[in-house]
Structure formats: C-alpha cells, structure tokens
Task: structure prediction
Amino acid sequence: MGVNIKDVAFRAGVSPSTVSRVIADHPRISAETKERVLTVMKELDYHPNAIARSLVKKSSETLGILIPNNIEEFFNPFFPEVLRGITQVAQSEGYDLFLSTSLNHLNDRERTENIIRSKRIDGLIILTSKENDPLFEVLERLKFPSVLIGRPPVTVSSLLWINNDNVSASFEATQHLIELGHHRIGFIGGNHDFIVTQDRLKGYQQALEAAKLPFDPRLIIASEFIEEGGYTGMLRLLALSDRPSAIVASDDVLAFGAMRAAGEMGYRIPEDLAIIGFNDIPLAKLSNPPLTTVSVNIIELGQKAAEMLIRQIQYPEKLHQSAIISHELVIRRSCGAWNPVFPYQPTVRDR
Amino acid sequence: MGVNIKDVAFRAGVSPSTVSRVIADHPRISAETKERVLTVMKELDYHPNAIARSLVKKSSETLGILIPNNIEEFFNPFFPEVLRGITQVAQSEGYDLFLSTSLNHLNDRERTENIIRSKRIDGLIILTSKENDPLFEVLERLKFPSVLIGRPPVTVSSLLWINNDNVSASFEATQHLIELGHHRIGFIGGNHDFIVTQDRLKGYQQALEAAKLPFDPRLIIASEFIEEGGYTGMLRLLALSDRPSAIVASDDVLAFGAMRAAGEMGYRIPEDLAIIGFNDIPLAKLSNPPLTTVSVNIIELGQKAAEMLIRQIQYPEKLHQSAIISHELVIRRSCGAWNPVFPYQPTVRDR
DNA sequence: TTGTAAGCGTTATCAC
DNA sequence: GTGATAACGCTTACAA
Result:
C-alpha cells in the first residue's frame, strides 16, 4: 500500500522526475527506460496520487456542479437529465465531476467562492439563474471558467451561458392554446426570482397581447418548482368564479401538479381543461394524458454546457460564444390538439 | 487572487501554523489572535486550498461514485433516485460527491483501483453487483471504505453492502400474479451476470414451485437493462404459440418496454396481459396503466449506503453491519388487481 | 536523455 | 499559546 513515485524510481533505478516523465508520456525519454519504468509501475502496482498532482499542476480535470442549498430543487427531473448530458461529454473528454453538496451552512455566494478557491475543480456549471444572485458577482470577480445554464440577469455581462429562447417558447405554447380557442388562460410559474420564470411569463403575456386578449393578474400563480406548487396553484385558479379554460405551466412538474388537482376536483383533461408544460422531461410522454409541452432539449443543454466549459478551460484566452438551444412544441394529448385533422400544424407530433 | 495561508499569516503578524489552527478551530489559541486572524482572512478574502489540505491530511471529505462504463446504464431512473438519497445524506454530513466518469478507456477493475489510489475520495459507493466482477478483488485487497448497493457474489465476504431481499420480493410479486389466477408467467430480466437478476429470477422460480406450477425456460428472457430490452423480450414472449398471460419484469424500465410491445401488438393491459415491475421508480405511478411493481425504497437505499459509508470512514476499526432495506408490493392497475373487493390484500394500495 | 532541487499550500510534530 | 520545520507526493525548471 501507499507506493509512490519515489518507490518506483528507486526500484527502476531512475529519478522521480524520470518516472514523472514516463507518466506524462514525455517525448524525450528513451524507449528502454520508459519500458523499465512501466514494468516497475505494474510490479509495484503504482497509481499516481491525483491530489499531489493537482497541487502542483493547479488543475484537477474535474468539472464542478453546485447542488442548490434547497436540495429538492435539484431533483426536479430536469436536473438528472442535465446531469446526463454533462456526464456524457465529461466522460468523452476525460473530465470527472464534482458535486458540491457540503458547505450547506453557507449561502450560495460563499459556497461558490469556496468551491472555486478550494482548487478542486477546473470549471463550474451553474444550474439555475436567479435575479440578483450574489453568485454572479463572485464569478465575474474571480474570472473562473464557468457556464450558466439559463439566462444571466441583464446586469451580468461577462458570463458564458447556454439557454433556450424561453420568451419565444412560451409565446408559442400560449399561442397554441389560443389557436385551440382558449381565451382565458392561466399561468402557473415558479418563483419570480428565477429568470426562466420571468422569461416564460413574458412570452405568455406577449402572446396574449398579440391576440388582443386581456391580461388578468389573478390568473398568474407563482409557486415553488415542485409538484405541490402546481397542485395548490391549480386549486386557486379553479376556485376563481371565472376559472381559466387552459393553463400554461412553466415546468412539467408544475403541470403534473396542476393535472392532479384538476383530476381530483373532477375536471377532465383536456375536455374541461387544457394544460401545457415546459421542458419535456421523460415523464411527460407517459403521464395520463400524455402532456403537451415545450421540449427544451435538456440533454443537449447539459452536453453543450459541458462542452463550452471544457473549451473555456482549455483555451481561456479565446473568446467564447454563449448559445441558444432550440426548443420545440411537442403536442400530445393534454391540450386536446390531438385530432389528426385539426388544422394547426404542430412542430412535433408525438405518440 | 491566490492569497494563501502565508499571506494571511504575514498580514496578521503570526505564523502559518497559527492561521492553520484558527481554521481548524484549535482549542489552545488566544481569543485575540483568533479574532485578528479571522479579520485578516476576511480582509484578504482568503479561502483554504482543499487540495493542499487533502494532500497532508490524506482525506478529502468526498464520497466517490463510479459511473459505469456503459453510461446509459447509469440513467436507468433507478440511479438518479439513488443519487438523490446519497446526496441528501452527504450534504447533511458534510461530504461532497465525486463522480468518476473519465478513465473510461480502462476496465472497471482498473478504474476502481485508480480512483481509490488517486486519493481524491475517502470512500466509494458501488452501484451494481455483477458476478465475477474483478472489482471486488480490488476492494478486498485495498480494504478501502466502500459500500455496495446490492448483494455481493458469494465469493466476496468482507464487503459492506446494502440490499433488498430480492428473492422474497420476487417471490411475492410472482405470487401476486398466481393469486390473480395466472399460471403461465413470463420473466423478463436483465443480464444474468447481475446479481439482482439472479435473485429475482430465483424468487420467481420459488413461487412457481410453491404453487406447483411448471418452470418453462422458454418463458425466461435475459435482456439489457433498458427499455428496448423489455420491448424485444416481450415481442419474443408474445410470439410463443402458448404465450404467457402475465409477466414479471425485473425492472420497471423493462416493464415499460414490455408494455409498449404489448400495446403495439394489440394487447390490452391488464385485460389481456398482466405486467408487474420492480423498483417503483417515479414513472411507475404515472404510466398508463399505472404499473404494479415492487417498491425497493430506492431513496432509502441511497441514504443508507451513504450513511454506512460515512460511518465506515469515520470509524474504520469498528465492525459495521450490512443491511436489508424493506420492500413492498405496490398494487396499481397493470395486473388487474385493482378491484376494491378483490380478496387479495395488497401491502400497499396506491392511487 | 536524465538527475537535482525547489516548490505547490497545507498540517503535524516538536520545541519554546 | 505560538513558531520553526518537516512532511504530503508530485511536476518542472535548470543543470548536467
């Protein structure tokens, strides 16, 4: 146990630097020494200490992900999917992943600063974008390689991001409902601090405007990004004397909550109530009825984020481009637009 | 940028050791020096270098998870759920998570040895148990803190594990189908190298025996642990001249594949074909029809694994107990036992 | 092509 | 209580 580079060097009759060079596959090293050192490494069952290496190289070949303090937020099915995309790229590019879960006694700003300065990671992927998040100040100040999944607040300029065009996406979703004949449409969104909520609400409003439909603030619900939030939000909307006939939910999980509430209150979907979601998580196609939703291509979001981060780590001096991932309306059954002869031509028709 | 412990020491007019003691909250340190050092740390915006600390302390407060080489295996919904349990406990106990994805050019044995010897993690959680997996030899030899989720092969004695009683679980699942009147029951399992497949197959066989039903090897399908495997497996079973009337699928994802195949071939579930799954992933309650399955309490599995691992890291000399997590039959609609007056009394009745 | 030696940023041991 | 000093295991000038 605990065989180190010196042991190998000694046994092979060379210096530690030579062993180091063999490990690094240094070009100027004689074939025979290389051979000999490799043999000894096998013999002694030597494995390099990555920590020691990181200390001197100041890099760890590891991408960091900050698990939000509110941990359940991380288990919206959106995140496992993003993680999947990140993992695929990380694996193929030779990077490991570090999930920072500890330090949860600190706030997000401090946690970010800590994880960055701890030197355990070479870059950071930020999973959510909140208005006035002090975390952005840290990232801009430290100039640490990072990619935000989502849109940064307008005050933040220098941060690389990968996002969807959520305003358009929500515009299209709302328009879909309008074209199906709805003119009283509710909006169930996450916390308004989330940029994604703001953008999707904006698209909703723009679609109403474009159709010259009135905007009624009583139809707007801001809840938490969990199924329960969609549930109670839906209850409130159904309790209105003039209830909406259709719902834009800014997240599939909220949509499921809304569907559950509607079901329990005796409404049929889509006959009595149309519901459209966002993200197209794997569950969406399997729910009953299958959920019409806007796919944001989650896995691609994760893949691209990892790619951009790795490029940034490898070529820090280059100018890197933020990017928009496309979205598509996925028409299933929860809005009643599944009639094959229905005139509206969906982007994607599924199941 | 890059302020280190020496900078702090200098500015505070003390030695690096003193600063180190302040960081470690060492008892024998005067209140005033402590105060002064803390102030300077804030002033200089000092954050400790975790890598350097790990190097000397030989520990990293990090739990490792080896992402399987076959990465899609990791995205069976079982794993995100396990990860969720692990994350919860890791967070509350102050451990971070390291997902080893790189090194995928190596085999699992080498990857395991590498990650352990790299010193980046204090303990390892193994997500799957395969017969004759050379990984176990490594773990036993290195005596590295680790917990296996699943049952180790009988040849492996010294490894801590957390598991379900899969034989009983499968016995009960099969028995449920038998009690519903089925006597020709197919089994769609994962690769037979997986211990979990072996155990669940065994429970299935025992239930047939107990009911004096014949065992027909043509009714046994071994596929990959992916939806597609369940799909093709089901097609093969349906093509039999004497097709089964019910299916035990050793994984919910396989069950979904089977359901899809059955649906496409024109069979109704549960009227024409009963299907029972395993794990109770979140999707199971939402499928159409909702899937009857055996809950293995995935999150608890992950939580307990993390707890056991952390205990083992903290008290390596103690004797640690492996454990069994309970399971429950969750009766939904895919087996036709949803009639409230049906005599069979399910463990859990859901939706 | 190989070796020597300094240093990465900490903590631990042992003085005082 | 506090400070030197020596590790920890590796990489990398610089020398040879």
